[in-house]
């Protein structure tokens, strides 16, 4: 398992991209849409930020999540003693991902890069 990114729910995607690029020197890595969400990954050196803009009110309450990249997602899903709140699903970029909720309602993502 290795650290991959932190995700931030944003109100205005382009404004947030500009903020992180202008002030902190981040570059756009990848951009895609999943269901009602516009998603952009920004990188700088070894740091990766996922910016998520959603139109659903229920999604706007989720402010933050963290993510670990794993080699075998199915193994992790089978081993964990908690039920996922979403997934496993396959994203347009080929990643397989699953979300869990921690004891303080934090979102925990595990994903496998299929490409």
From TrEMBL:
Occurrences of domain VOC (ranges): 2-113
ATP-binding as UniProt keyword: no
GO BP field: L-methylmalonyl-CoA metabolic process
CDD domains per UniProt: VOC
Keywords: Metal-binding
Top-rank taxon: Bacteria
InterPro entries: Glyas_Bleomycin-R_OHBP_Dase (IPR029068), Glyas_Fos-R_dOase_dom (IPR004360), Glyoxalase_1_CS (IPR018146), MMCE/EMCE_epimerase (IPR051785), VOC_core (IPR037523)
Keyword check for Metal-binding: yes
Pfam families cross-referenced by the UniProt entry: Glyoxalase
GO molecular function annotation: lactoylglutathione lyase activity; metal ion binding; methylmalonyl-CoA epimerase activity
PANTHER family from the UniProt entry: METHYLMALONYL-COA EPIMERASE (PTHR43048), METHYLMALONYL-COA EPIMERASE, MITOCHONDRIAL (PTHR43048:SF3)
Name of the protein: Methylmalonyl-CoA epimerase
Lineage of origin: Bacteria, Bacillati, Bacillota, Bacilli, Bacillales
